Amino acid sequence: MSFGAGNPADSASSSPAVSASPSSTGRGIALVGCGSALPAASISNAALSERIETSDDWIRSRTGIGARRVAGPGETITTLATAAATAALEHAGWSPEQVDLILLATSSPDDLFGTAPRVQAAIGAHRAVAFDLTAACSGFLFSLITAAQYIRSGAFERVLVIGADQLSRWIDWDDRRTCVLFGDGAGAVAMQAVPQPQDGLLAFRMRSDGSRNACLTLAQTETHRPLIGSLSAQVGGFAPIHMNGQEVYKFAVREVPAVLADLLEATGIAADQLNWLLLHQANQRILDAVANRFAVPQERVLSNLSSYGNTSAATIPLMLDEALRDGRVRPGHLIASSGFGAGLSWGGALLRWSGPQS
Ligand code: ACO
Fold it and tell me: Domains, the chain, ranges and CATH?
């Protein structure tokens, strides 16, 4: 299949991080399959409050979270991502050998050298190149947008984009300000090349602000071991997640509506034309604030926070998969999505769900 050469300079706005819309390449992307996986064990707010000073009422009223899944023995990023990717392959009707690229968005890899190759081997996608991409809770959206560039350029035809996190590894379970928020999980989307008129990525934005990095970190600790004479070497290891919750909250309710408004204006799409708001699942109050800003009714805002909490890079594909399987999201539906989190990083995309191609 040939759709011509790409030219990213033909973008729709002056922003340095904007999609070509419509694509100048003649080549678009279609979202054709989805899958997800969760650890077996669920921990309720009530169970957590046996361990730390908190309550179901505090957690629910501040966040909307009622429970979270936590990976147990034998459950890892590799096993969760593999299960999600396998389900997405089945949904798309692809064989593993057809996959050209696997992008794994994660901030909690099994191996800092990269976990995606383990997933590639586990699903038997022998032809695929596989690597990790780290952008915290924006990781899935950034990976989907990155995958779209490879497809639009003609480099690859079929891509699996996986978001998987196991932040339970990196939480201080005695810190009630953070441990109640996060859960583990994985989700995957299968994307393939289609002629540009069928393009399912209508527009996107990607943003970073490292000057606010300290608001939310999972940072390398500063420990040294003596080496030779006066020389020393750093010891590998990370401090638990540290978050300034109020600053991150203010950042999210300011930047997410701004990026979505920008996308709607750039594409000429009105908020009432959206079938779904599919935002990173961090806090129900953030979802409500964004929905109110665009007058999107609650029944068109996708949320599974009450069951799973914030699963970081996994939230968007996990939520999408649930809404596909129960029939809420259907082929042709228009979805406004936004990811946001540590970095700080954030972004948005207007997506159209295609479904499996015959
Ligand atoms: N149970 C009971 N009390 C608690 C708990 C808890 N689990 N956590 C905090 N408190 C207490 C605090 O100690 C504080 O008490 P004090 O006033 O006596 O000191 C009080 O509750 C208020 O604490 P705040 O931190 O001000 O609570 P806030 O209303 O801001 O809610 C929350 C905290 C839910 C974390 C909120 O700030 C939030 O959701 N922020 C955004 C998080 C987010 O969106 N993250 C996304 C990115 S995640 C990523 O990228 C990996």
Answer: 8-21+200-351 (3.40.47.10), 27-197 (3.40.47.10)
Whether 333 is catalytic is no
SS3 content of the chain, % helix, strand, coil (to 5): 35, 25, 40
What confidence score (pLDDT) does residue 22 get? 52
Nearest to 331 by CA among 36, 90, 33: 33
- Name the residue type at position 99: V
Residues having CB within 6 Å of any atom of ligand 1: 54, 58-59, 62-63, 136-137, 176-177, 180, 216, 245-246, 248-249, 252, 282-283, 286, 310, 312, 341-342
Section 266-290 average pLDDT: 97
Which atom of ligand 1 lies at the shortest distance from residue 341's CA? 50
Ligand 1 atom with minimal separation from the 63 CA: 34
Which is catalytic among the residues 34, 137, 179, 215? Answer: 137
List, in sequence order, every residue forming a beta bridge with 155; answer none if it has no partner: none
Tell me, in angstroms, the distance from the centre of ligand 1 to residue 282's CA. Answer: 12
Q: What is the DSSP letter of 122?
A: H
- Check if 91 is active-site: no
Tokens standing for residue 38: 């969760």
Write the DSSP string, 154-218: TS-SEEEEEEEEEGGGS--TT-HHHHTTB-EEEEEEEEEEEEGGG-SEEEEEEEE-GGGGGGEE-
Query: Which atom of ligand 1 approaches the CA of 342 most closely?
Result: 50
Question: In the predicted model, what is the mean pLDDT of residues 250-255?
Answer: 97
pLDDT reading at 110 higher than 70: yes
